[in-house]
Amino acid sequence: GGQEQHQHQQQKGGGATGGQKKSGGRSRNRGPKQQQPPREDPNARAAARKERERREAEERERERLRLEREEAEREAKRRAEDAADRIRSHLASLKDACSRLEASADLSRRRAELRAANSDPARPTERELTKLDSSVKRNTTLNKKLRCVTEETKESVLADVSRANQRKYVTEAAAAVGEVLFKQKDVSAVAEVCSAMHSKYDEFASALLPQLAKVARGEVGQEGLTLTRKRNALRLIVELLVVGVHTNAGPLERMVEEICEDVGEVSTAEEEEQQQEQQQEVDQRAQNALAMLATFAKHGREEVLGTPSPA
């Protein structure tokens, strides 16, 4: 039994020795071997860089062309809009010129008709006048309308003139017109109403003209007289001459001469302060006179001065 125990211990020890040899030996399983990264080819790297630069250059070129195209489109649009604006402006100017030509033609035609009627008016007889309304109410209402004739009220006033008998109120009617309360744009309408009055009453023109001359010759500021009223009075005098309500241009010529004298007037005061005040008044009168001359030249240049209107 002791021998078997000894053998058994030897086997155990041998087994242990064998196990140590196995564990102490080198391991044959070292795992997968690590691979080294491949070396980068310098030529490939340079080629990639060139390709990248080429693409970037192409992108920049495309962007440049896009910006140029957009700028060209904006410029073309701007030019087209400018051209359209010029065309619209030319068309508006042409339309305005046509309107002015039509208005001028209508005015010339109406002036010719009035001049023909006023040159030999067929005035009603006294018997015919007695058939018309001569009441104070009718004439008072008509005189109020005569103070402020407009293009819009012209037809109504003309109708009232045809229905009324103003034989006893001609002076009052002339004074109403002679207040010159109408506007510049209504001068032609006023002249037409005056022509109707002249065609009925031969004394109307002789009663009206002194009233207009008084306003045209008056001093601005006196009795509320304005430069606008002075200019409108002068223009109506010219218009009445053109349509034949009066045919003597002598008073108008003398009036224009007086206006020219106001333009050339100089101060005669001796003291400096008084001279300055007087000079200011003189300068103001000269400016007013120039405005009056401009009115005369504008509205009487062709019929009175014989100077054609500018094209």
From TrEMBL:
Record field: compositional bias (Basic and acidic residues): 38-84
Positions with biased composition (Gly residues): 12-22
Matching Gene3D superfamilies: 1.25.40.180
Region (Disordered): 1-84
GO biological process: nuclear-transcribed mRNA catabolic process, nonsense-mediated decay
Entry's Gene Ontology cellular component terms: cytoplasm; exon-exon junction complex
Name of the protein in question: MIF4G domain-containing protein
